[in-house]
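tool_call: predict_structure(chain=1)
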Amino acid sequence: LGQRLDALVALQRRLEGARRTAEAARAAAESSAADLEARLAEQRLAYDDAAKATEKAQTAALRGLRSDISLIALMMDPQFGGDSISGVLAFVQAGQPEPTTLDGIFTLPVPGAALSSPYGMRIDPIAGSVGFHAGMDFAAESGRPIRAVAGGLVVIAGDCGGYGNCVVIDHGTSLATLYGHMHQVQVRPGDTVVEGDVIGPLGSTGRSTGPHLHFEVRLRGVPIDPVPTLRG
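tool_result:
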């Protein structure tokens, strides 16, 4: 009887051990399943976030590409007129703040050159009639370096119709400067310039009677008197 009791106790102990082992295995399996589900949930969330971020980036890139294409289409016009230049500036300067001051913010585009025609009403030297002169003319020998009056982004560089070879620089505060009748341009649209950079030599291209620089300052695309903006 004693042996049978001992055997029964041993069997009960083995059964209890097996039960505990089974419970531990089940708990481990449940824990692993929970961990796996949590990891899967995290991965799904990360995937969703990445997908949303990718979609947002693609949308922004597409919007930017469309804007770039629109700007390039304007800039590639082989004969820029005043309206085309104003259109490019309106596009580029959308959302830019107004300048806090206009006094003495620019250096001279052709240091040492003589002022040959001021801003304002004058007799047109070609037509012979009274008309509005939207900029200042600086007379000097052909080939004299023309310099950027301040840092900015080149938005137009090439044949601008009556302006001849011209460069337009956006200065980032709704202000732009135009340099006309250049012998040639030495910058390209998209180039960044700093104050004093040479953008090309002075010439007499376009609607011109002789070597000079036609210089304009534009606020929101509209020509303003350059005199207060210049120093030196």
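agent: The longest helix spans residues 2-75. Proceeding to next step.
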